[in-house]
Known about the structure:
Rossmann fold; 5 strands; globular
Amino acid sequence: MANKLKHRWSISHNYMTGITFGKWMKLLASVKFHISAAYWHRAIVITIASMANSGFSIWEEIRFGKSIKEVEITKPPLFILGHWRSGTTLLHDLLSQDEKQFQFANTYQVVNPLTFLTTENFITRLFPGLVPPKRPMDNMSLKFTSPQEDEFAPLLMTLQSVYIGISFPRQTAKYEKYLSFKDVPSTQTQKWKEAFKYFCQKLSLNDSRSLLLKSPPHTGRIKTILEVFPDAKFIHIHRDPYRVFQSQRHFFDTAGWYTYLQKPDLDVIDEGILARHETMYDAYFQDLPLIEQGRHCDIRFDELEADPVGTIAKVYEQLSLDGYEHLKPKLDQYVASLDGYKKNEFSTLDQATRKIVATRWKRSFKSGNYSI
């Protein structure tokens, strides 16, 4: 295994640096303080950062806590749903161009949910190099100010997220339940909902625009989200399941290595990808009828890729969103800026793996009208 530990010495791309000391100790205790020796340096960095985070979080609560709790979110949030590697980031980036209508959580805020009101301005100005310019799994642009998935914020606030199982792969089974919350005790679910709402209130403290939120795990949490935001709207994006599977494999062979605190078992990666997809879409199709008519639309990644501007126009029409004419010039400009970007290329899956994916993800092939 030693010769396979990619990016072993890297301390970048690690969301755990935003955790507070008390939560960090609680998390370590829950995994019996099992951190692989190869990653002790990461644990040391997280520990040092957590001490500073604790101090800033206390000061932030004193300064802003009362005001945050009084924030009322009156405009329906828009949630982007879809499996990892299905195009959610591209869709998020396109919709975030509508600055008149939407606000979004950025990279710094989701990794520092308890301190960003106090620390964001000076940290991002003094240390812009802390964020590498490209995402490791797909080379898309990355900055502190980039739209980012909000999953990391309630994760760091509650320690309830399937992503913790990526950092601690020997404990994966313990955290899988947080993908859908279907088998989570109501008291734990309530804590997650309260933390998620508090983070959204924090984002809205000085900003009354609608929240634009993106996180693949939300795909399996429609019921839970509607309990927090009953008037929420949803966009679901899907992609050729074979491509999704290959791209997820690539994620674990690239970005995954930056966050490990335990040595992974590479032999179980494929089964994890297959099983999480099944869990996610079991919950998605179960909860989909809970969304009121006119508050949900479904798009294909290949159509978004081929005609980004036209596809966004259809989204605005289907969800009765205002402001498309104001947005279109910015969309045209942003799409032009993407010229020259090259996607990852993968060789064709072997027949045995194709058969497994086709069998296990049969519903996604059928619902998305993809060829097996």
